[in-house]
Fold this sequence. Notes:
The structure holds two protein chains of two kinds. By secondary structure, chain A is mainly β. Helix content of chain A is 0%, strand content 45%. Chain A has no helices and nine strands. Chain A has strands spanning 9-12, 18-23, 33-37, 44-47, 61-66, 69-74, 83-91, 96-99, 103-107. Chain A is globular. Chain A starts with 8 loop residues before the first strand and ends with a strand. By secondary structure, chain B is mainly β. Chain B has strands at 3-7, 10-12, 18-25, 33-39, 45-51, 57-59, 67-72, 77-82, 91-98, 110-113, 117-121. In chain B, strands 2, 4, 5, 6, 9, 10 and 11 form a seven-stranded mixed sheet that branches. In chain B, a hairpin with a 5-residue loop joins strand 5 and strand 6 (57-59). Chains A and B meet through strand 3, strand 7 and strand 8 of A and strand 4, strand 5 and strand 10 of B.
Amino acid sequence: SYVLTQPPSVSLAPGKTATITCEGNNLLSKSVHWYQRKPGQAPVLVIHNDSDRPSGIPERISGSNSGNTATLTITRVEVGDEADYFCQVWDSSSDHRVFGGGTKLTVL
Amino acid sequence: EVQLVESGGGLMQPGGSLRLSCAASGISVSNNHMSWVRQAPGKGLEWVSVIYMSGGTSYADSVKGRFTISRDNSKNTLFLEMKNLRVEDTAVYYCARVGGGVIPTISDGFDIWGQGTMVTVSS
């Protein structure tokens, strides 16, 4: 089965740029989606199809996909950005949706 | 307003059965690809199942043969029938729409989520 690998945690100071990676075999051939999940809340789609921002998502949040790694970038991080972030793809060979293990973003 | 509202969660013993419901408003479950996603306590998100506009279905290996996804178009409601429940099925279960693009595409992410319903399997 297809596997997506994320770092467990990322910590940085307010105002800095956070980069969260998502690795998978031949990931560039797939559409990568990113979700933000805060405690007690449902996940929110923040990046769609590698780099598209849904309505209402700030421009500080962006995504890219290259080779075997997709990246979620959050510039000028704020305390309000603290959350778990998950990448996700559709694996056409199995017709399964796959999530990465998630990355906890801490803004110190 | 687009809204998905799950219900039916609760405390069950191992081996038991439960049916979750997801009432949709503002969207049609029959005209969208709809899915169930769960999150176990302290764990990440896990995709469970999908039902396509065509009626076709797909399941995660962990639930295949035990869970059944379905929909009632007249009630605009999505269901997840869960049988032979295991302790490891304990999780918050979310229904979600597969979408995000201008036209629903099978590779889309999940753009609309419900608030979730808790299922606890314990003896």
